[in-house]
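Note to self: user wants both folds in one dump. Writing first protein now.
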Amino acid sequence: MKRREFLKSSVVAGTAGVLLDACAPPGSEQIIPLLIPEEQFIPGVEEFHATTCFECSGGCGLLARKIDGRLVKVEGNPTHPISQGGSCARGQALPQAMYHPDRLRSPLVREGARGDGHWTEVSWDDALDRLAAELAPLRADGAGLAFLTGQLRGHRRELVRRFAAAFGGARHWVHEPFGDATVRRAHELVAGIDAFPAHDLEHANYVVTFGAALVEASRSPVRFGRGLGHLRRGRPGQRGKLVAIGPHLSVTAAHADEWLPARPGTDAMLALSLAHVLIRDDRYDRAFVDERTEGFGAFRDRVLAAFAPETVAATTGVSADQIERVAREMAQHGPTIAIAGDAAVTGPSGLATAVAVTHLNALMGAFGRKGGIYFDLVPPFTPYPALEEPSELEEPRPLADVLADASVGARALLVAGTNPFFTLPAASGVADLFSNIPFVASFGSFADETSREADLILPEPTAFERFDDDVPAPGVGTSMASLSGPVFVRPLHDTRAMPDVLLQVGQRLGDDMAAALPWESYETALRVAWSGLHDAQRGSIVETSADRFWRSALESGGWWDDSTAADVEFVTPGGRYRFEVGPLLAGAGAVAEITAERPFFLHVYPSLAFGDGRSAHLPFLQELADPMTGTRWGSVVEVSVAAAEQYGIANGDPVAVGSAQGELVARARVVPGLRPEVVAMAAGQGHTDYGRYATDRGANPLALLAPPDPADGSELALVGTAVSIRKVTDVVAVLRTGSRSIDV
């Protein structure tokens, strides 16, 4: 061999070795993707694909950037009405989910006892046959099957509901710790509309939040953040005001013009006291109240009799002068919007808070006005054909109700988009519920605490590898829908979307199920539904054929119609807004109590980076420092300056927080922005099984909360649990919690 040929072969062999060692998984026998590409691409040329973020409920439109066939970055879709080119940290971290080393790669069947974590890989044909074999005997009694999900939207929800109905009345259970069920229930009571409204923040002048973490984590941080930014600086010479109410100086409160540190659980009382001043001084929108509402007399009498500022000041911790001033400013500097959310709408007073805040908006005449509140118009989707023999199908039932029901009787359970073993305390009974169900199948892209208790795990592709759609809530007051298609020719691993699995199982369960679910794929089902938007011949996409419309919608990331006039038509028997007083009588005075043994309230709030914990597996977000506490890769417990002095606690000291449910240990962060009787913790950390980046990081404050009470109408009481704190001197106990990873 000549020297030149030897050197050539050496370089090629050496390069191949580097590529195999650095890029390919163990056992690979070919160089991927440069020599044998999985897709046709031009090296070095970037591609952009419209997609949708499903990491939270915001439904933002994204642009996924690919180079050399690999997803490298995402940005906000500039044409999407929600994102308008922006995205939050959780959206930016999504490429790490795509290439995560702990992703589920194929169906898994449990080996051994539940919870042991021993699994065997099987083919999809085997997994679908096993699932169909477990479900087929239950067709005679459809109620023997239950489907537990998070708060589904778009046609995923429709497919789950249709599958359950066609099955013969299978039950649908819902668990979403920071969901909007209480706010939607309040609007259904007063307006007849079961929906989370859109807020015209861009044209408002005054915004009051009751516990809602608008800037960091509540519902749609990109949408709310942009709206509040415009309220502040988007109108030259005009600057709106933001007032934040809550016991904890959140990111939203830190960005507000004024923070009112109200005592936990007194938000309803404070909202009604503001209403008292508006009614007493005749500063409410009399035209709206007279022409478009009913029941105002009983509401007025109740508010004037029981919620004077001087009466509620001591209980709420907000002075009468502050209440009087804020109420005057609300009336003087309108349009005004009041928004309730997160911990404030949970627990015994949660519904009362949501209803009281909605009544404040009615007093301000905010419904249907510029700078006020709208309900988004439903996009004109083509409805799916009616079932030949529709079953009596109950409305989705909160998991809290199910856990309190001793006669559940389910024999098979499908789980998707929720992790109750992490987000509920042990005393909730969720473990007993699962143990009494003979067969459990779990859908998801990652194994977590709940899927560990399953018998069969069915891995889903990420949002970049599947078809999906969404109707964001809150929206922007117009008719719109987001659409997402695969960014790649095929999924990275052997995964299938949950709606596709339901369609395939339906084909195996009999002719009637196959007729009810006739589509060969979820993409086909979506195309049928979206054909209605083409038929409307209006909005952002108008094409000559349904096929051209579908391609354009995928390229754009959705469809929206700015020409539809946003308005509010109340869907009550009288067509008027109802000033309901029942929830106020039951919950406005339901204030939690502390004891000498447990002299603090625990306030749990959603994490900016992790939400309720579902994003904690992404290392980018673990590395992201919390803007208020500076915490990374762990948890802190926030204590007030007064409590720190009383207990001799300094920044970084290990502190044990105990409730009737148990105890956890985390490093202390002494903060001035906290009521003295409150300790606060962000949710999201403390996983016991959620991949290498989240497992055994920090502590889970949700485990300390009292079990959910079905009477509250919320999944968890995120504020009001009585706890004790103590400084920990046992270093071994501290290290056992993973607190050594905290950056303090």
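First done. Writing the second protein, which came from a different request thread.
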Amino acid sequence: MNEVELNEKIAEVSKTIFSYCMVKTPTREEAEDLSQDILCELIMSAGNIRDDNAFYAFMWGVAGNVYKQWYRKKLKNNTCELTENMTEDIASDDVLGEDDNNDIYLLRRELALLSEKYRKATILYYINGLSCSEISSTLAISESMVKYLLFKSRKILKEGMSMERNLGELSYNPKTLLPMYSGQGPNQFWQFMQSKIRQNIVSACYNDTLTVQQISLETGIPLPYLDDEIKALEEKQIIIKEGKHFKSNVIVITSECADEIERAVTKYHEQIADKMTTFISDKLHEYKNLNFVGHDFSDNTLRWQIATILFRMICGVDCSDTIDAPKTGWGEAAYLWCVEKLNEKHIFSYCGVDDKHGNSLYFFDYWKDGKGKGDHHDFYGNERYINIFCDICRGEKMTLSEYDLEAIAEMIKKGYVVKENETYRATVPIYTLKQYLTIINIAKEFISAELASIVREMDKTSAKILSAHTPKHLQNQVNGIASMDKFVNAVCIPATILIDRQFLSTAWHPLEMPTTYVVLK
């Protein structure tokens, strides 16, 4: 890295370094001094960087070392004696000197790390001014237990204030996890794991078993904000407790693991795309001759429809050595896992719903670069919309209420329905059960003969790599999760190849839905 590039990097990270120092120090002035020390050391040590790509890791290493040196110097000149006057100390920090102010910072830091039972007693006594008798009544514990908690908390606080505590990487570089689910519905895991705090608790506990205090330091989140989240995760068996330590109970496929798997199976992507191209081209005429509703759609839409059915079936290819899906914390049998960050290669999501008559509406939503058409969230969980749409597909003569007409207007707006001669027509292929089973059987023969062996080899390779990245206590889930997670490599990447080749086009026909269809039972 030459001098110009180094100066550009230093300018780029200076704000990040200052933010880091603001977290580590009690005053802005000290943060400025510490950040200057870090940047100076970074400039002087830059010659030790062997790989430009390692700059950020090197930067944080330098920052950590400089901070430790600064903290040790600070600690030599600072002592703090905890007394019964903690409440006055905490309340009067606006008139304290710089050294005293640092003590208050440390005291508040340690209060944020106290476990719930100690924290509640401490706050009620020192902050709210309650007596031991009143605290006993409030917390429904004996007075002797209250006195024990207060004595113990003072000891914990005093010890903690004399310790150096470093925030973990998740405090300044939080993870984004995509919750994945395969099994019996409904998928409650998705919504439950939308919380960034929950995602990062799982990340923190994945490779290490941590106490609640260690989770707090690793994530940079005070315990009062973590308590309920940890309880919820434990209740749903997303994390499990061993003694005072917690560990994740779901596999997390990190970016490094996903990239390693993709590199190892890349040779299979083109093979799947080639075989699908040949099959769809050969079977397109036979497919049209089934005379289902929509058989006269554009060739591009019909190619997408065949591909969609193949993609759904590839996801279901059985692989050896997988265990039955375990029971989740919600009671369903399903595989739960997380993928680090939303991979840009996740270009599909799929779903199937049934109406009141047992007719099925299937989605295989494509979405990339704003070019999606059709979204299962338009119908999922909305029985009225599903029933109305399937009635339209069945050609039912309906007595429509004002609310029904509003629903249909929404479907027209989103492209699922068109109005023709005072009647409504669905813009999706509609199969009878017999027609659909014919398509499924043809597809099964093709997958069994041409694709199943490829998919199983991909699963075997993926499982081996995933196992190397997975903690010991989760090894029994590896084969199942590797099989479930084949979606990107067996479906999404081959589909992207077909799109890049223009065999499948995202220039959608305005009156045709490419990846949604209905099966009438």
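Dump finished. Worth passing along: The chain has a mean pLDDT of 86.
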